[in-house]
Amino acid sequence: MTTLATAGSRSSLTAGKLPGWAPWSILALSFIVSFTVFGLLSLGGEVVDYNIAGALFCSMAIYVVLIVVISSISESRRVAMDRLMTALVSTAFVVALLPLISLLWTVVINGIQRFDAEFFSWTMRNVVGEGGGIVHAIWGTLLITLMATVISVPIGLMTSIYLVEYGRGKLARAITFFVDVMTGIPSIVAGLFIYSVFALIVGPGAAGGYMGALALSVLMIPVVVRGSEELLRIVPNELREAAYALGVPKWLTIMKVVLPTSIAGIMTSVMLAIARVIGETAPLLLTAGYTLSLNTNLFSGQMMTLPVFAYNQYMNQGTSPDAAVARAWGAALTLILIVMLLNLLARLIAKYFAPKVSKR
After folding, report:
1. 31, 62 Cβ separation under 8 angstroms
2. Do residues 184 and 301 both lie within one domain?
3. What's this model's pTM, rounded to 2 decimal places?
4. What are phi and psi of 51, to 5 degrees?
5. Same domain for 142 and 110?
6. Where in this chain does the record put each ABC transmembrane type-1 domain (predicted)?
7. Which of 14, 22, 130, 286 could cysteine-pair with 191, CB 3.0–4.6 Å?
């Protein structure tokens, strides 16, 4: 009797339940239906333009309707309401991602047209119509961003260490206030500031890669300071106190305990700072200048960067508008790929330098 009662209670609890694979199957069916319909609509027009954002939104709308209807028929009202709320939360997540997905889709579709050997091995020197490449812009972007990172990371990291470990009183509050103000400075203001400073020192019309790096460092430093400061604050005080109890001086505690513990987060904040400035156009137009040839000397002559290249190709299309627009989209896609590769490199570095945790 006890065995029969237990079996009956188990069957009553599991009766009227959709199998675990059912929601995923309904979601897959919704995506298939929506993407198929949008594909047929795009092929039916004169211009093939696949609306991936609309397809994703309609897929989630179809999924919400189907999961609620099927759950209401086969399950209880309480479970159906739970599935409705889960579907709505999932839909909200997809809607939040729609701008990013749409942006990536548009850049990939338009930029992949010029991903060839010529595009990554030629410059725009003596190129009037079709052809040409972005090798000079890639080198300019990498060199200027590298110099800006070399300037900004030590300054920002040491400032955050001072604020967390040493800073007290009015000076620390003043530094925090000015860092917060610098975080909201428009990028064009940073470019105008560096241009004005060197116009007074060197003379009007001065431009070079080092000036672009200084303009980007003005934008990078506050991001590095704020990110590193928050990460240093979450390091447990017990680790510091344990080092002090062993007689380790404070500076060595910071070097050997605090920084290694938070190195992964610090690398993330550095990557956020790089991603913040690597796509800036306005300050580089004023400071780094514009050139059609390859220049790898940061301290001599103007340098081209990918954001400036994309801007100029789109605004000054010349005799071959289609070729110029294709080069602009290709430069934008290349810039996104560079940011992704730098992010991956930062994660590998953080994983390598992070403190090892023994597994028992």
Report:
1. no
2. yes
3. 0.80
4. -90, 90
5. no
6. 138-346
7. 286
